[in-house]
Amino acid sequence: MIIMVYKDGHAPAHVLEELNRADLPEEVIREQAMEKVKREKEAARLQEKERKLEEFKMKQALQRSIMSTGGGDTSQLNKNKRDRRTIAEIQDDFKRAKHN
């Protein structure tokens, strides 16, 4: 068994709630529980609404990007090949080109 002792004003909110709950009548406890459930449902509803709004915004942005690229045409990126030669090789090639 664990016994926790808190100084005045330093007890966590859930501990104070439990202490005060014992003093409340059953009717008030039920009301508080119902209010808590109602708040949780409202929070879940707001989260779902926010998720749907974000999804809608993403779809709109995707449609706008498709429209701006010409109705779904895509373009290939990085078409130009990168020169992989070393600096010394490039300088040698320039020297050869000057002599020819």
- Principal-axis shape equals elongated
Rg, rounded, reads: 34 Å
Give the averaged pLDDT, no decimals.
84
Order of helices and strands: HHH
Helix/strand class: mainly alpha
| Secondary structure: number of strands | 0
Q: How many H/I helical runs?
A: 3
Please state roughly what percent of the residues sit in beta strands, choosing from under 5%, 5-15%, 15-25%, 25-35%, 35-45% or over 45%. Answer: under 5%
Report helical residue fraction.
55-70%
Seen as an oligomer or otherwise, the chain set is: single chain
Poorly predicted ranges: none
Main sheet: strands, sense, barrel: none
Distance linking N and C termini: 95 Å
What report would you give on this structure?
The chain contains 3 helices and no strands. With 100 residues, the chain is mainly alpha-helical. It is elongated. The longest helix is centred in the middle third of the chain and has 43 residues, at 26-68. The chain has helices spanning 13-21, 26-68, 87-99. The mean pLDDT is 84.
Protein traits:
100 residues, mainly alpha, elongated, 3 helices
List the helices and strands and how they pair.
Elements: H1 13-21, H2 26-68, H3 87-99
Summarize this, please?
This protein is mostly helical. The protein has helices at 13-21, 26-68, 87-99. The protein is built from three helices and no strands.
